[in-house]
Amino acid sequence: MTQNGIAVGKAGAALAGKAVGNVISGLTQGDTESIERKVEADAKEVERQALRLCERMASLRAAQDELAGALPAFQPFSVVDADSVDDCKK
Length: 90
What we know:
The protein is built from three helices and no strands.
């Protein structure tokens, strides 16, 4: 899960750099219509990666709750709740 989160973060940072490049390229070539199209396509890929990460939140919560039930000392560290899972996809 950590690796997925890192990958999404890196993809977001790459998207920002690529978006700046697309803006500069579009402006210098007089093709401003392609800027939005390219940036939106790249943003959709980052969004897909983030949603895959969110899909794993439910199984993470289930594992966390199972561990907290079996090991009460773990309960204070159980931080993923139903709202976290639901909010992830927003």
